[in-house]
Amino acid sequence: MKRGKQAILLLLASLLLVLSACGGNSSSPSGQNGGASPSGENGGEGGSGGKSGSGERIQLTFWDFHTEAEQEFFERMVAEYNAIQDRVEIVYSTSSQSDYTTAKLPIAFTGGNGPDIFMISPGDFMKFANAGWMLDLTPYFPEGALEDFLPASIEAVTVDGKILALPYELELLALYYNEEMLKNAGVDVPRTWDELLDAARKLSTDTVAGLILPADKEPYFNFVWYPFLWQNGGNVLSEDGKTSLFNTPEVAEALDFWGTFFREGLSPTKLQQHPAEIDHIGSGTAAMQIVGTWAINRLEQMFGDMPINVAPIPYPADGKPATDAGGWKFAVNANSKYPEEAAKFIMWVFAEDPERALEWATEIKFAYSPRQSVVEAGKEIYNKGLRKVFTEQIYDTAIPEPRYPAQVVDIVGDALQEVMFGRDAAEAAEDAHQKLTKALQELQ
Amino acid sequence: MKRYTKWILPAAAVMLGLLMIFPLYTLVAGSLRSETNVFDGSLIPKDWLFDNYRIAVEQSGIVRSIGNSLIVSGTVTVVAMLFHSMAGYALARFRFPGQQVIFSWMLSTLMVPFAVIMLPLYLIVRELGMLNSYAGLIVPALFNAYGIFLFRQFYREFPKELEEAAYMEGLSLARTYFSIALPLSGPIIVPLTIGFFIANWNSYIWPLIITQDDRLWVIQVQLANLVGSGHFTPWNILLAAAVLAAIPTFILFFMAQRHLVEGIKMSGIK
Amino acid sequence: MKASRWSARKRQEWATAYAFLLPDTVGLFVFVFLPILYAFYVSLHRWNAFSPRAFIGLDNYAALLADDRWWHSLGRTFLFSAVYVPLLFVLALGAAVMVNALGKKTANAVRTMILMPFAITSVISAIIGVFLLDPRTGLINQLFRQIGWPAQQFLGSPSQALYCIVAVLLWINLGYNMVIFLASIKEIPRDYYEAANLDGASGWQAFRYITFPLLRGTSTFILIVTLIGSFQVLDQIMVMTKGGPVNSTQVSAYYIYKVAFEQMNMGYSSALAFALFIIIFVLSLVQLKLLTRE
What we know:
The complex is a heterotrimer.
Chain A: H1 2-25, E1 58-64, H2 68-84, E2 88-94, H3 97-110, E3 117-120, H4 122-130, H5 145-148, H6 151-155, E4 158-159, E5 162-163, E6 166-167, E7 171-178, H7 179-184, H8 193-203, E8 209-212, H9 219-231, H10 249-263, H11 279-282, E9 286-292, H12 295-302, E10 308-311, E11 323-326, E12 329-332, H13 339-350, H14 354-364, H15 372-377, H16 379-382, H17 386-394, E13 398-400, H18 406-420, H19 425-443
Chain B: H1 2-31, H2 51-60, H3 62-93, H4 99-108, H5 114-127, H6 134-138, H7 145-156, H8 161-168, H9 173-181, H10 186-201, H11 205-210, H12 219-226, H13 235-257
Chain C: H1 2-43, E1 45-46, E2 54-55, H2 59-65, H3 68-100, H4 104-115, H5 122-132, H6 139-146, H7 161-185, H8 190-198, H9 203-214, H10 216-230, H11 235-240, H12 252-261, H13 266-291
Antiparallel strand pairs in C: 1-2
Helix pairs in contact in C: 1-13, 2-13, 3-7, 3-10, 3-12, 4-7, 10-13, 12-13
């Protein structure tokens, strides 16, 4: 009776208390509360940081997805930049990669709340470019910096003559293999498609997979297949991205080759860990794996005593070698309140002093820099261990990851999966070609 | 004969229980393995790294995020219980114009996938100034027709005698509810509390997009952040963190068991 | 005298009812209904990341009628629900009846065990699922091999993947629904069972003629809510299969999510969501009518 009523009043009171306390914390349109604070503080709402009172610094938000050592690198960069100047303060935050690309960024940008500084992948590049969310960075390159970049890597981020993002890493794919397993099975290091298939057949056992390839549909899935496509002379779309080139025999052959590994059980159709993790071959449950430069550091750290070596991805006897070069890019929100300041920061991190770019590419992870001066400066590292194979045999054959719209990625992914599970490759290619043509029309 | 069958039922039940728990065992076992052995498929872990738990606590800021989750889930659960039981009672017991319409309308709000209202909701919450705050985490989560539906269901089957007796005594309708119906709603409040608390505890997408400040992270967002940038994930630490994250809910279970009453005692009115 | 008391009571009833309903009505309106209205508004536009926004009326809806992928996803959704909902119902009810018949201590223990999977978040439960179902190292296949059955591809097989998702969801939700049934079973007065016992009824007859009919309301509730929920399963699919293999697990909810967030096509995805909403609504209505017929 009375007790019941009292309890409820108490409840409502405490609720009000809680809400009002939070109300104080919530970002109010008048801007940030409190001044400078290191990363982790109130990220600030609204399209882009906010100016806090006179005499205080401009706040810019930097959203990232990196973790562990890579996150630590960026946190250091932010702290250093905040320390060496007092006009701008960067506020850093990070989330997991899949959330970053599938939820956090899209929602924030669509709602008009995107961060000032962020990362973009080739897969999402066109989405953001078409929506006008990325700032034209061309005027912000320091003197002479632009020429230092590989033309192909700049082209990959240029739309209508505007450079919309800053590339800072090139991650190449190669074939990692277990030397001992190959030796025991009497198999040479495969160089051609036929040899790869043959090797996989001989190396596959009940407990060891012949070759690890991605099996779930996602941008990385296509990413690993593209080298095979390009080696065989095929391509998904025309240069200008307006026509589908998918209904050629070269495409069908590349599809079929891919599918064979799965149909014959040489590559598992379901993996516990992500196919980009070197653990598959590192733990001895696979003989070969196609994966990228990023794996080398982990290989040396965690699986140092496994006899693993690397070779270029095998190519068809009548084709040419090719591999894929992926990598994230730095970008600035076109709607940022302080685009110039934001652009200055990203240029400072990766387009100025090669030291930082070198540290990223050679210590924090292993990747190639799109800047020639950095590759020169890091010559020693680029020739250490497995990296040497990449530098000498693979680097020159790299083609940048294409930046197709999501619908295209999805259709190609469907074709790949259909072939993996038994559909005729030519049919699948033709079918995909129809769908691609239709999708491209709709996107026009 | 009868003694024999008396054994079968409990035995079968326990077996079912063990079967249901077994996957959880693999979760705990996985959390004790070394990073490279997590997926080796063995039944018993080769290593017993309790240290993983220490690392999970240190590296992942998990204590704070559990605290946040407790605040959010706790508040939502308590307040929602009150609101929904009131609404369910009104729909079950009272007669008033628009009753059917209101109920159908409420029910229909369950039928739209969250992915679709996610963005408009984000915009609304932003307009209300609740972005990046506890309010933004708590208030939108309070309103879910599932609870209303279940309470209504429960109160429809509730025996009327007690309330009628109260009415004879001259109690107002509101008083009747608070003093008689609500206290006896144990059998439905217990599962609903569990359900709401857990649903909010496990809520992930909404907290992800509504908070930017990592001091406001709830446990699920924190856990997802432990999944590496796609190149390497310390699975064993992640699993350890997941086990830690589930502990409060297990505690809730055990506490709730004591209150699952054996039915409404009817003896009072006779 | 009586007239005024009658209308006074009525007024009190109305006032109390509206007052009781107020918080939830307001809340649902602001935080659920408004977004739904907004989503509907969006569905009438061409609204994607790359073209200017334009009002296009029902064009999105016309487009979805011609969308093979949409129909395919509906097919997978219906299949999923057709398998999942009856199974969950039967298993939850069966488990409830079974636990109800146990002694107190055993009942507590078993109930807790069956309920525990519910405490795990959907992401972790999905990870456990992937772990156990792995074709090579998963414990389930290891068991199969031990007893001489062939190992299965499970999530790597277009024909099995969907059922694996069903299994994982059953594992998670069985306990909770069982507890709801239990609450209702316990509302049934013992006297009925005692009377039936005296008449010599068997356990099964007691169930069929006493328990089951008296659970009608709860059964209806569970069936409707489970159906609605089964149309919205998303997290497990995102973690375990990403809609594959070969789109065999690309249910409508997942397709809607993809169109919205991978293709950034808000207009079209809102239209899809509305179409799904209408389907769920109609199905629930039909269910309600069928189940509450006296």
